[in-house]
Design brief:
Radius of gyration: 19 Å
Oligomer: single chain
Structural class: alpha/beta
Number of strands: 5
Helix content: 40-55%
Distance between the termini: 66 Å
Number of helices: 11
Length: 321
């Protein structure tokens, strides 16, 4: 127990240092380790839990890239699965005892072989501590899962970018908010210890939350402290786009303003949101999973036909036809 307390204390000190540095970086509009998407990347898959499945930040990113780089023809696929972990852990009585948390280990091979992504963007951590106070063994399971994910994705020849978990509102539980601070700091440290590409959404979201509460004490990203609203999703998309070198996004306060320079930005965004909603269920059904209570998606061939139909409409809006 003493070793765990010392370990957690050291990481909390590191968290404060990282938080201070990230606060300064955000104030200066700085994004470390900019990543340029390689020219051969066409199919980008987002992996994660219910926050990714909700898909707002994924649609934000697709809309921004589509409008700014229509010639790239990126296919951005949301393969997030609600409740999922990369640690393989599940708390007793999850979902009122109806089912345990799904484990990415069970489905990753099918995602990689059926979708064949060129690049994976993975966001895990929110569920991986199973909403309990810090525990060294749970932390190790998370670390092992992340390392396994890295090895598996690279084995298939795809690139991988990690995204730190979004913020758990400390008003819902300070202990678990601190757990995600520690998980985020460890993942950020892998930039240097392992040379990984890691995008930090956690600390910028935390700083924005604290700054807003100085003005409006009732401000929050999420009613339940977990699932961010559109503001939270935009904050995630903004940090990811900054990491991808899109410095112009720093001036935007929301997606509407980010797309406002294009005459048909709103129309393009609405079409992408509609398509993302359809395709995420089609891809999940096609690749398979063990989580009950999910929508059954269209057969993948039918979904891909509809994808192309919407793509034509999007391109017409972008070209102004």
């Amino acid at each position: 127990m003493k070793r765990i307390i010392i370990f957690a204390g050291v990481f909390l000190l590191l968290s404060s240092a990282v938080f201070s540095q990230n606060s300064l970086n955000r104030a200066e509009g700085y994004q470390s380790q900019p990543y340029r998407i390689p020219d051969n990347v066409k199919r980008i898959v987002f992996l994660g839990n219910s926050i990714t499945y909700a898909g707002n930040y994924v649609a934000d990113i697709e809309a921004y890239l589509k409008i700014h780089y229509p010639e790239k023809q990126y296919e951005i696929i949301n393969a997030g699965l609600p409740s999922e972990t990369v640690s393989g852990l599940s708390e007793t009585g999850h979902a009122d005892g109806r089912f345990p948390r799904p484990d990415l280990h069970e489905r990753l091979e099918r995602v990689m072989t059926k979708i064949k992504p060129d690049l994976v963007i993975a966001t895990y951590g929110m569920n991986d501590g199973i909403y309990m106070p810090f525990d060294e063994e749970r932390f190790r399971k998370y670390q092992d899962g992340i390392r396994w994910l890295h090895d598996e994705v690279t084995k298939y020849g795809a690139g991988i970018i990690y995204v730190t978990p979004s913020v758990y509102d400390e008003r819902k539980g300070e202990a678990y908010a601190n757990v995600l601070d520690l998980y985020s700091d460890w993942l950020l440290s892998c930039r240097y210890s392992s040379g990984w590409n890691v995008i930090d959404t956690h600390w910028p979201m935390k700083k924005y939350l604290e700054d807003r509460r100085l003005i409006d004490s009732s401000f929050r990203y999420a009613e339940d402290g977990i699932h961010p609203d559109e503001t939270g999703h935009f904050m995630m998309a903004k940090q990811i786009l900054l990491y991808l070198g899109e410095s112009e996004i720093a001036k935007a306060d929301d997606m509407k303003s980010a797309l406002s320079k294009h005459d048909n930005g709103d129309e393009v965004y609405a079409l992408i949101q509609k398509r993302q909603k359809m395709m995420k269920d089609a891809w999940l059904t096609y690749t398979g999973h063990l989580r009950p209570e999910m929508n059954t998606g269209l057969p993948i061939d039918e979904a891909l036909e509809k994808y192309q139909e919407i793509e034509k409409r999007i391109n017409m809006q972008i070209s102004g036809q």
